[in-house]
Design brief:
It comes from Fictibacillus barbaricus. It contains nine helices and six strands. Strand 1, helix 5 and strand 2 form a beta-alpha-beta unit. Helix content is about 55%, strand content about 10%. It folds into two domains: about 100 residues, Helix Hairpins (Orthogonal Bundle); about 140 residues, Rossmann fold (3-Layer(aba) Sandwich).
Amino acid sequence: MRGIYHKYLRLPMLIRVGLILFIILITSALLAHFYERKTFPTIFEGFYWAVITAGTVGFGDIAPKTHAVRILAIFLVFLGGAFLAYLTAHFASAVVKNENRFFEGKNMYKNEDHIIIVGWNERSRNTLKSLLNEMTAYHLVLIDHSLKENPLYQNGLHYIQGKPYEDQTLINANIEKAKLVLITADSNLTEQDADMNTILSVLTARGLNENVLIHAEILTKEQTINAKRAGADFIIHTSNLASIEMVKHLKSKYPLTKNGG
């Protein structure tokens, strides 16, 4: 008996409450059949009446005539009201809890052919907003360990909270079914450390999905070869792009020659 009781305690709360309710309804059906055999000629008739009464529907097609069964009906009405209130509160709580998990980046992504963006910074912010506006056919998943909540929740972005070089984080982002991964450099680290983190993230992603396309942002030229060795398909040198843009800007505003003239 103790083993059965412990198994019962391990069941989800909703199932436990449902079992208790079922036992009460069966017991009520047996009592109604025992006290009023004319009104409830079968146990099924008693069970039908108990369910209708507990559900506070009250069709009125079967009505008890004895005081004992009427008292039982009162008990079932209160029980049914309490159970319905519990169900409403339980489902409302489950919806809010699931919404909070989604907002906090704790829900696993389950769709396929999505794009994973690793890292939250100004570059990834602009990239995500552009992709959300221009590539509506693809679902986007953001991975970051520093954010406490989804930064683009209203835009339908799915957020995974965690470090991108940990297997479980990428598994939660459903890396096995992803179409493309874009790994941006961590702006909070030095260039060398940011590149090392990027390479480690590339290794982890490639180990979990051999076929996914991986675009990696590398800040130092020295780590380009290592990023390719780790499994990156495309290397993005944002520092070079920024330098080129600055030189273009200077030339357009202040045309210079070797003689300074």
